[in-house]
Backbone:
């Protein structure tokens, strides 16, 4: 449908796409222009430290993926085999939490369990041991990455097991197949089909992991490219090195992304089915013990850090923290920044959705209709730290970093949220267009009337959810603020990180709890604004 | 308002790999059934008339006026879809009122007309319900009420009664026939049930692979089926001597 409405929609989307591309292209161009002449770049690539960091980035991502998969497969299998046991729903909910948690908060929780003064160390000491494991370094990175990605993999594998036709299970029971045969003939083939894609996704997430490595990496021995970029800019004042590292990082994420596309990896989390499988196998004691062991381990591994956040947070001096001007200022800055970034992300997403309008009902074609997909991919390849590094290199010579820092952080946070808001809003919007596009066109419902009568009532729930997601992401961000934060410009995560760095662990734990509470309040508000009653 | 003629003059359209070419004239005030195998292009034909699709070439004329490029809301057409005819979050009254005013803001002067449409379709008393609280038949009645209120001379029905049971479907068809008698709209109705076509249609157009192969009174269909292999195959168990119930 062409016409005035069609043109306005095209214009809105083209504008949003151009803005988004510019916001990615400008910092990238800044990096490229700041890049030292070829010879120096090659020197940096031969620098043993850079090579070590690049190697470690890939190595820890590989190990994290391997461990997550080895943990997730038996857990997913047990969850599928045990369709109904008391607490199954609670366990499924529990496993969905780590991905929704800001990384910094989760890392605090992990520290309270695994840290030098954590529960594990204290338990070991009480038993006469020498204390817990040294959490800083590769161990801590792996513990944290498994905490986030084991549940993700469980979800992806569960979705694959769910797709196995019910007849297979009934047939297996009828033929009296032993567990090992069912594993070999039914379960493993289903899992194997999704494993490469799931592994590539987790590898990508771990290779670009920033917060975890920044907090738990602890030193040059266990640093990734993203953290090295941050250090090159903030501590060594060595932009050329940061640029070389950024190029290396882009090459790695770009390559992994291409592999991901090749494997048609699931870019979304999948789900763990609530309805029991028609399973009759796994009744013997060995299988029961096996499943109980893995499900209990997964539950404890996931729940302990969550409990740790609350318990150590409550034991902090929350009254003193609440009275501290620095905390109050950071709280205000965080809320303002997150609100701005979320609104910007929502507006951009809405504009990018406009080409899906029309009488045909959301079968938009061409690059504009896929603009959001493009946006989502772009942010995956160009992680926030790279964007931040680009802006940093551009803005440093102006000498007015303090002045530019808030808008730049807001922009980076908005871009970061875009893939998520797009994934929430696009299917809902497409559905509304498919259902009502022709009707609206026929009745001539357009413009404000359409917004009021159709789009708003039907989209307010997904809009609320998208806003909540964007808020949570921006509030938890450490990547952008770590580059631009200063004494005058501090967000809650940045303050938390500083307290942690000066060994004020209690303060950090208290702030983590405050951050978590703030995120939950704002998310609840955003979802309430979306209204509970929506489209049936 | 009485019906006007609709002519598709060498209208070409491409959907995925299928090239379609429609050339047919629906006479003013006629009641047509459109039949054909699924994927033959029946809905596409209606979408072209309603303005939801734009042809690659050819013209679509209403009462002789070329409206090939006219937007859907400015064509003299009301189309009733198979489903999603109503906004599920709006009341019956608002859904109907949108036929009168596309911004949904009706004034007291519209009340009488809306009430009349509600009564005519047997929906009086249900105006504050949401579509989810109505039966399938009632929902399609709301769509018909809106079409009555819009009073456009051409009415397109895209199998709107396919999901209803036999008795209800017969009632709805009879209602369509009544509307046709009262208002004299030109009605084009897609159906895959020969009985529906026989029940009320004056002429039946048969479509296959994006072309109109025949357009004849229902009584002649069985004769045609022996000459037209596509029609014979489609009808299959078509009765030898169709009777037209009155």
Residues:
């Amino acid at each position: 449908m062409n016409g005035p409405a069609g043109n306005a929609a095209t214009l809105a989307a083209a504008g949003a796409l151009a803005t988004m591309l510019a916001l990615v292209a400008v910092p990238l161009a800044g990096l490229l222009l700041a890049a030292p002449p070829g010879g120096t770049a090659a020197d940096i690539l031969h620098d043993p430290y850079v090579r070590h960091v690049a190697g470690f980035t890939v190595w820890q991502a590989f190990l994290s993926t391997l461990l997550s998969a080895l943990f997730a497969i038996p857990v997913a299998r047990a969850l599928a085999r045990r369709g109904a046991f008391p607490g199954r729903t609670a366990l499924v909910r529990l496993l969905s939490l780590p991905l929704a948690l800001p990384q910094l908060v989760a890392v605090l929780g992990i520290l309270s369990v695994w840290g030098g003064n954590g529960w594990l160390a204290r338990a070991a000491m009480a038993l006469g041991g020498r204390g817990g494991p040294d959490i800083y370094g590769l161990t801590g990175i792996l513990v944290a990455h498994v905490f986030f990605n084991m549940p993700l993999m469980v979800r992806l594998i569960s979705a694959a097991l769910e797709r196995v036709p019910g007849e297979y299970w009934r047939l297996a029971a009828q033929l009296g197949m032993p567990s090992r045969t069912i594993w070999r003939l039914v379960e493993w083939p289903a899992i194997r089909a999704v494993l490469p894609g799931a592994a590539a996704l987790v590898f990508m997430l771990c290779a670009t992991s920033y917060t975890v490595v920044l907090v738990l990496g602890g030193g040059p021995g266990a640093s990734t490219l993203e953290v090295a970029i941050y250090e090159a800019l903030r501590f060594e004042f060595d932009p050329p090195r940061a640029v070389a590292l950024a190029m290396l990082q882009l090459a790695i994420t770009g390559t992994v992304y291409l592999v991901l596309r090749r494997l048609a990896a699931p870019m979304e989390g999948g789900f763990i089915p609530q309805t029991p499988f028609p399973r009759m196998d796994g009744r013997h004691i060995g299988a029961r013990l096996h499943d109980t062991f893995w499900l209990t381990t997964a539950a404890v591994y996931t729940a302990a850090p969550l409990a740790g956040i609350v318990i150590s947070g409550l034991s902090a001096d929350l009254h003193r923290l609440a009275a501290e001007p620095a905390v109050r200022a950071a709280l205000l800055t965080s809320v303002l920044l997150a609100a701005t970034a979320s609104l910007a992300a929502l507006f951009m997403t809405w504009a990018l959705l406009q080409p899906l309008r029309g009488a045909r009902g959301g079968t938009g074609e061409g690059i504009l209709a896929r603009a959001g997909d493009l946006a989502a991919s772009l942010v995956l390849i160009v992680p926030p730290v790279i964007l931040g590094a680009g802006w940093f290199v551009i803005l440093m010579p102006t000498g007015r970093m303090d002045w530019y820092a808030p808008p730049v952080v807001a922009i980076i946070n908005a871009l970061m949220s875009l893939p998520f808001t797009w994934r929430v809003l696009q299917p809902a919007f497409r559905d509304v267009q498919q259902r009502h596009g022709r009707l609206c066109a026929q009745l001539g419902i357009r413009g404000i009337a359409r917004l009021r009568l159709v789009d708003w009532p039907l989209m307010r729930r997904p809009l609320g959810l998208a806003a909540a997601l964007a808020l949570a992401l921006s509030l938890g961000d450490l990547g952008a603020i770590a580059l631009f934060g200063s004494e005058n410009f501090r967000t809650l995560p940045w303050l938390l990180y500083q307290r942690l760095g000066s060994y004020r662990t209690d303060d950090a734990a208290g702030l983590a709890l405050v951050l978590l509470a703030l995120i939950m309040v704002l998310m609840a508000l955003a979802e309430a604004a979306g209204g509970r009653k929506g489209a049936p | 308002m009485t019906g006007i003629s609709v002519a598709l003059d060498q209208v070409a359209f491409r959907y995925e790999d299928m090239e379609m070419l429609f050339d047919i004239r629906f006479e003013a005030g006629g009641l047509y059934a459109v039949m054909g195998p699924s994927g033959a292009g029946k809905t596409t034909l209606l979408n072209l008339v309603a303005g939801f699709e734009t042809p690659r070439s050819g013209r679509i004329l209403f009462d002789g006026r070329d409206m090939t490029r006219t937007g859907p809301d400015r064509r003299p057409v009301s189309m009733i879809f198979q489903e999603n005819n109503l906004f599920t979050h709006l009341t019956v009254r608002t859904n109907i009122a949108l036929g009168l005013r596309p911004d949904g803001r009706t004034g007291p002067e519209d009340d009488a007309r809306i009430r009349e449409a509600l009564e005519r379709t047997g929906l009086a008393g249900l105006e504050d319900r949401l579509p989810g609280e109505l039966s399938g038949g009632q929902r399609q009645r709301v769509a018909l009420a809106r079409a009555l209120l819009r009073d456009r001379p051409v009415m397109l029905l895209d199998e709107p009664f396919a999901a209803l049971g036999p008795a209800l479907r017969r009632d709805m068809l009879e209602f369509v026939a009544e509307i046709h008698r009262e208002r004299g709209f030109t009605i084009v109705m897609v159906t895959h049930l020969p009985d529906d076509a026989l029940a009320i249609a004056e002429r039946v157009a048969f479509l296959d692979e994006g072309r109109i192969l025949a357009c004849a009174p229902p009584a002649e269909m069985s004769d045609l089926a022996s000459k037209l292999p596509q029609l014979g195959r489609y009808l299959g168990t078509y009765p030898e001597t169709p009777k037209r119930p009155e």
Q: What stands out?
A: Helices of chain B lie at 42-50, 92-97, 108-120, 136-150, 166-183, 194-200, 221-227, 229-235. The first strand of chain B starts at residue 6 and ends at 15. Chain B is about 35% helix and 25% strand.
